[in-house]
Design brief:
By secondary structure, the chain is an alpha/beta fold. It has a single domain, classed as Alpha-Beta Barrel (TIM Barrel), CATH 3.20.20.210. The protein is 50% helix and 12% strand. It contains 16 helices and nine strands. A hairpin with a 3-residue loop joins strand 2 and strand 3. Helix 2 packs antiparallel against helix 4, helix 4 runs parallel beside helix 7 and helix 15 packs parallel to helix 16. The chain is globular. The two termini are 34 Å apart. The structure holds coproporphyrinogen III. The site of coproporphyrinogen III (CP3) has 22 residues, from strand 3 and strand 4.
Length: 346
């Protein structure tokens, strides 16, 4: 039998309701922190920072030192997988990521296989090994990957898109090529996350940031089914490692998502209310979320009130406090402290 976990985050993932929920924050290592901006400048640029294991570990630790979050999330990006598969990737300052585009089956066939990604991703595994030795004993270590649909939307459009139209077009007009891409991404993600676990990740999170643009059958096929496949494969290799799924803006499709995929926790964006989630989602297990990230910019009593309301609504079951999406560069570091103090004294 495995030992019951002692870290607060892992206890929540094991299904324990706690008087004070564990807390961490999406993009907690990021541009709102002056120490992050300094280390990024030292690395040169964002991608160089991701592949520099010592500096990536350093920025992962910065928010832990400053705030004492209950978990650290590996510093990397969901777009490193396409790069490992052979896509070109670069970041345009002030605009975001750019990639070489997948247009058809020949583009998919030019990608590498799932076993050929590890050389490229070796620095990421090294970051986890460093973190494992450097983190405080009470801090959990989270690994992550993008879900196949979200990663595919960037690979097909060659950049971020408001409505993911190019990916929807390919899945409708050339389903063979689209399905082949989804299969490669699903298999690569399993291998990538499995290696992250072997390197020290105690839980992994699957980010499906654009799941909300899939509706009905398409949601089942391209958000739920790949998550189920990835989670099933990881559970057979690492039965004791909990998994967090984030089908962002899934709305009503959050209901039953954990059961259908085998996820131990479902992360909620802030478009659903915490009271609704307590009733319909938390009944199946742990939930994570879901404070509006704009509170990190505006602060004040509204931040305190909304934070308390979320803690209160989800107190009856396992809950990990977090934002509904990543913190933005214009956030005030003092508002993060106010959120943490509010959660820990609620
Ligand atoms: O949460 C964390 O602190 C861990 C590290 C992490 C990053 N990106 C670092 C990052 C994680 C988990 C991600 C996930 C990610 N990356 C997602 C899914 C989550 C989400 O936000 O929806 C997506 C869609 C990406 C792709 C990506 N990376 C975009 C669209 C951008 C540009 C947006 C921006 O803020 O400039 C990035 C860059 C990025 N990834 C930054 C960070 C800290 C900013 C880079 C910088 O320092 O300039």
């Amino acid at each position: 039998m495995t030992k019951a976990p002692t870290k607060k985050l892992l206890r929540a993932l094991a299904g324990e309701a706690q008087a004070t929920p564990p807390i961490w924050m999406m993009r907690q290592a990021g541009r709102y922190l002056p120490e992050y901006r300094a280390t990024r400048a030292e690395a040169g640029d964002f991608l160089s920072l991701c592949y520099n294991s010592d500096l990536a570990a350093e920025v992962t630790l910065q928010p832990i030192r400053r705030y004492g979050f209950d978990a650290a999330i590996l510093f990397a990006d969901i777009l490193l997988i396409p790069e490992a598969l052979g896509a070109d990737l670069w970041f345009v300052t002030g605009e975001g990521p750019r990639l070489s585009k997948i247009k058809d089956m020949s583009g998919v066939q030019a990608l590498k296989g799932r076993d050929d990604i590890h050389d490229h991703l070796a620095p990421i595994y090294e970051t986890l090994r460093i973190l494992k030795t450097e983190l405080p004993a009470e801090t959990a270590l989270i690994g992550f990957a993008g879900a196949p649909w979200t990663v595919a939307t960037y690979m097909i459009a060659g950049q971020g898109t408001p409505d993911q139209a190019p990916a929807h077009k390919l899945r409708v007009e050339n389903p063979e090529a689209f399905d082949a891409l989804m299969k490669i991404l699903t298999q690569a993600t399993i291998e990538y996350l499995s290696m992250q676990i072997r390197a020290g990740a105690e839980t992994v999170k699957l980010f499906d940031s654009w799941a909300g643009s899939l509706k009905g059958d398409a949601f089942q096929k391209y958000a739920l089914e790949p998550a189920r496949e990835i989670i099933t494969a990881l559970k057979s290799r690492h039965p004791d490692v909990p998994i967090i799924a984030f089908p962002r803006e899934a709305g009503d499709a959050y209901v039953g998502f954990a059961k259908a995929t085998g996820a131990d926790c479902v992360a909620l964006d802030n478009s659903v209310s915490a009271t609704w989630a307590a009733k319909h989602v938390q009944k199946d297990g742990c939930v994570q979320g879901n404070l509006k990230s704009t509170h990190m910019v505006t602060g004040g009593q509204a931040l305190v009130d909304d934070t308390r309301a979320i803690v209160e609504a989800l107190r009856g079951g396992p809950h990990i406090f977090n934002l509904g999406h990543g913190i933005t560069p214009d956030a005030d570091p003092e508002n993060v402290q106010l959120m943490i103090d509010t959660v820990r004294s609620a």
